[in-house]
Helix-turn-helix (Alkalibacterium pelagium), 223 residues
Amino acid sequence: MKETDKILLGGRIASIRDSHGLTLEEFGKRIDNATKSNVSKWEKGTVIPNRKRLQMIADLAGIHVNQLKYGEYGRFVVRMFLQEYEKFKKRYENMPDGYLILSTFDFNGCIASFQEWAEENKDTINYDDKKMKSKANELIYEWASKSAMSPKESNESSINKVIKSYRRILIELENDYYYGYENESGEVERKIRDGMDPEIFRTAESIISNSIKQLELLKDMIS
């Protein structure tokens, strides 16, 4: 089972006490006659209540004791998935074909699949981080293999990203060289900025546009 974060647990205990409008002393009396000092230490995260007292605090809040210890189940599930995904991501970032796999990895689909599994098995796994880690890894590599098995989609995705970046550069280049103004007829026209050479812009525009055309042809060849 995942180790309890004392500070976060302390914050949850403090919230429960505040929600019931109890002083440290009043709260302690309701939790197995704990002292004011005990409660203060729990809330500061210096000491964790024993099992009996944790259960009593959870019962007072009307929640499962594991929710008290580890936080809301849905958020716990997401944190577990993100931890395993970050490990997977670091492993593939420096691999030769890692970029293609990571760029085509369906993160939203994978995490949704994991959340669905976690909810369906909530009663049996019950915050069990070992089972969650195992399932998260299983799903991540399963979804990653789908990307690896689809080189056509991977190549198209990479080329599309480059094409989009070139088109964005064209817009930025035009904004650097020209500005828009409204003429007497109310129509918007563009005018070269002072000190900028329109011939250089046209040459750069031609180079970038041709690159886009070549990439579009390459995309058609692999589709």
Remarks:
- The radius of gyration is 29 Å.
- The chain has twelve helices and two strands.
- The mean pLDDT is 88.
- Residues 73-149 form one domain.
